[in-house]
Amino acid sequence: xxxxxxxxxxxxxxxxxxxxxxxxxxxxxxxxxxxxxxxxxxxxxxxxxxxxxxxxxxxxxxxxxxxxxxxxxxxxxxxxxxxxxxxxxxxxxxxxxxxxxxxxxxxxxxxxxxxxxxxxxxxxxxxxxxxxxxxxxxxxxxxxxxxxxxxxxxxxxxxxxxxxxxxxxxxxxxxxxxxxxxxxxxxxxxxxxxxxxxxxxxxxxxxxxxxxxxxxxxxxxxxxxxxxxxxxxxxxxxxxxxxxxxxxxxxxxxxxxxxx
Amino acid sequence: xxxxxxxxxxxxxxxxxxxxxxxxxxxxxxxxxxxxxxxxxxxxxxxxxxxxxxxxxxxxxxxxxxxxxxxxxxxxxxxxxxxxxxxxxxxxxxxxxxxxxxxxxxxxxxxxxxxxxxxxxxxxxxxxxxxxxxxxxxxxxxxxxxxxxxxxxxxxxxxxxxxxxxxxxxxxxxxxxxxxxxxxxxxxxxxxxxxxxxxxxxxxxxxxxxxxxxxxxxxxxxxxxxxxx
Lengths: 260, 229
Known about the structure:
heterodimer; A: alpha/beta; 4-stranded antiparallel beta sheet; globular; B: mainly alpha
């Protein structure tokens, strides 16, 4: 069974029909890239799946748990939605780190807040906090940031910031991690360190959905690619099919343009 | 000059009593206007149009008319128009009426500063809180608030230093603050009359107090300079 199932997702902003029925499945441990020109609906798709926008209709299921279903009459509570939301993580283009917290606190803030809801928090507080911190430190070390634990986001390079924001998302142990153009806000020489982190995660079989303009990266790292155009999925398949041997004329034209 | 030195201890004591009343008005105004200002700023951002329109009208009236007039209206109108002097005749009543006028007036100014401070926070901060599964309250108190505080320290320090000097307007309804105490020596008070220097001397108090506040806000600004976006 697919870990992420998206069925017939629609979204309009006023008269602008941005998503016109998007459907796809993603298997556990797979990496999917979403490519397409700007305005094709890639970011809106990501935002709908992450609840930053509410889709008009469709169904989203993660690990068998329905996150969104426009046909369902039962309204999920705010708390339920928050808990379900944690099955998916999102890494923003603009990082959106919390500037007043240092690197370690950016990663541990939410795990610590969530730990307070545990029944054994009062009795076990010290052990729980230590556990959270050591997990965060291990995560940051893996992403090459162990020297930066005490630094504030404003003291980091763009590539370091993006790695911290990946660590912050991973600390919540999501089933699927989404990336919204993770290298678009970076200087070209800094994209490599972020792409390497994503490659390493792919090797560890982290399930990921990546909206990207980095075609060669998408080709290397993805198991599956969807090409979006004007709110629809125009072509989908392996990178070999979609990026190397596109069938649709629009896909061909798009790839010609981005590959210069 | 010799006379001033002779009069100084008496004047100093009387001015201290007046300044204590000034200080009380200042502190009560801050304690009331900051939370009320926050409520007003939320009101003016409300999606319920009649509420935001009402709040904006009130803010316009309060910011658009002199605080001195507001003091007079709040103090005299209940007695003169409604025949019901809710403040009573004493210093206590004048103090409470002054507090009411100052709190309403400063809350309106603060609300605009808060509104600007809250609006200056990038939407990405709220979105990050949301995708990380934080509640709206957690996002506001753990993520947004300190950034708002940092953003509003300079305009708030400006406004608060203005408040120090604006407290003197309470003189218009004879609240016994420091200007009133200084002026009393012109007509005659504590056995001294015809002396204008005590009134001039009150400026030293204002200068010293706003100096202390300037240093304190500078320290706060520096303390919050460890981060920026």
